[in-house]
Amino acid sequence: MKMICNTPILGFAAFSGTGKTTLLEQLIPLLTSAGLKLGVLKHAHHNFDIDQEGKDSYRLRKAGATQMYISSRYRNAMITETPDEEATFEHLLMQFKHDELDLILIEGFKSQSFPKIELRREALQNPWMHPNDENIIAVATDIALDCSLPKFEINDLDAIAEFISTRVKSGDLAGKKQSEDSVAACCDTLSPAFLSVEQGIERILDAVSEIEGEIRVEVDHALKDILAEDVVSNINVPQHTNSAMDGFAIRDEDVSLERFKLVAEVMAGQNYPHPLQLGEAVKIMTGAPVPSNGTTVVMREQSDTFSEAGIDFVTFNGATIKAGQNVRSAGEDLAKGQSVFEKGCKIGPAEMGMIASLGINQCLVKRKLKVAIFSTGDEVQHPSQSQKENCIYDSNRYSLIGLLTQLNCEILDLGILEDDHHQIEKAVSEAAQNADLVLTTGGVSVGDADYIKDVLEQNGNIDFWRINMRPGRPLAFGKIGETPFFGLPGNPVATMVSFINFVEPAIRKMQGEEEWKPTKLRALASESLRSRHGRTEFTRGVYSLNEQGQLVVRSTGKQGSGILRSMSEANCLIEIEPLYAKVEQGELVTIIPLTV
Ligand code: AMP
Ligand code: MG
């Protein structure tokens, strides 16, 4: 079961005094009479208490029950104490029974990204919010307003209710930045912001496709390339039936004879040109062709040789000999005319050897995927410079270069871009024209002042997502022209974890590797691991075999998303799914081994 919110959510953006709660109170009956089953999630800033002093449930809770469930014929309530930290928005949404709801109205949670209707009354003299908030999908006001969003008179509750219920029922819940996606109604379509890891990967893979273009390369330079043609064998491998051992070749029908007359010695690269006669043997080396009718080989260790009247003999001392043993048949590995590798096959070390074994030294492969990368941020400095006050050295670009090199990409390194609108704009559009894929790091978080966001919004079709994962929550993805683009988060670990989860599958698909999936294994947690309900946690881990031969995994310790050492010490990511708030020692977890 995946813990994702699958019910549309909607909130209202308004300054205090606008009358939000009163409006909601009047709107809810209209929405329920339109047939919608409603939930409401409300945030309270103060230490609220819904239970009444003196009641049994109140007393038992105050006595120390951290979860108090009270139930009657008419209603149930669960009161959960949250002494450690406030529950996340995602976690709270998951407490609803989604199969019994059509819509969840949200009160509060201002900083969260989800669709909202802006409410504004002229008398309050507040500023507009919609020009700066992409989550606003409509405006209800008593002020004349010229904007492209749907507009309502703030007191026309019927019209507002009609708008909401039409959107919910039609599944057309698109916000301002929503694309053509026609997925069934869920908070994810209502707000493009919140996505699970799987949803993110699915959308990315839908949006990218295999690149065109192939080149002929030398086999010794073909490691990790993808074949663009079938490789067919023009020869038999091995060429001749040959000996698999150092020993003696005899005729199949002679296996029961006591002794054999030695008529020749055949070294590798030579052959014995005559058929064997009854009782004859040739001494033979591994790999040397056997005589045409001498297709049984007895290994040297089982033999004794001796001479009688100047003639050499060999005996096998009664060893059991099976006709046809210890020979490799011609064409046994690869038969002439056989298709050895199909187009789309990825060339590894064994494939390099096999292709060469066919007498082929060049092959047609997909051209390399060209990936443009740059870092952003005024605080980010090139490692060759002396360190400036309040600055950090660019590490992300180097991690990306490593990751991309492992994936056999051609890298177009555009360096560090200053926070200058014009410079970024020029670099982004040139990168998109010259590369198959563009990657940047930094500047995609909410509230980020970086220019990269503005430039992307104006120049491409880019969605800014919040992935329910840690590290790596913010992620921008889309296209600039026809070129796929990823804006990875700036934190160094988040950059790498996001790359592994989202960029690598896209790259492999673009390179022509079909249906690639990361290797995932299950290992026993050798210590308890922290996580949070509602999001996927990628803890950096070290896996190994324990004395019982079981796969076990521990974390690398401190998991801050800026602590790159946690990645350097890790040999895997531990993937803790959203369903789990914690993993206890001894429980099984999923691990994703890191490529070395
Ligand atoms: P941002 O996503 O731009 O808000 O950046 C998040 C954090 O990552 C900030 O502390 C940045 O300084 C840091 N960061 C951004 N880009 C890089 C980079 N190229 N190398 C190392 N750290 C970076
Ligand atoms: Mg930044």
TrEMBL record:
InterPro entries: MoaB/Mog-like_dom_sf, MoaB/Mog_dom, MobB_dom, MoCF_biosynth_CS, MoeA-like, MoeA_C_domain_IV, MoeA_C_domain_IV_sf, MoeA_linker/N. Catalyzes the insertion of molybdate into adenylated molybdopterin with the concomitant release of AMP. Its EC number is 2.10.1.1. It catalyses: adenylyl-molybdopterin + molybdate = Mo-molybdopterin + AMP + H(+). This is Molybdopterin molybdenumtransferase. Keywords: Magnesium, Metal-binding, Molybdenum, Molybdenum cofactor biosynthesis, Transferase. Its cofactor is Mg(2+). PROSITE patterns: MOCF_BIOSYNTHESIS_2. It comes from Vibrio inusitatus NBRC 102082. One of its GO terms (cellular component) is cytosol.
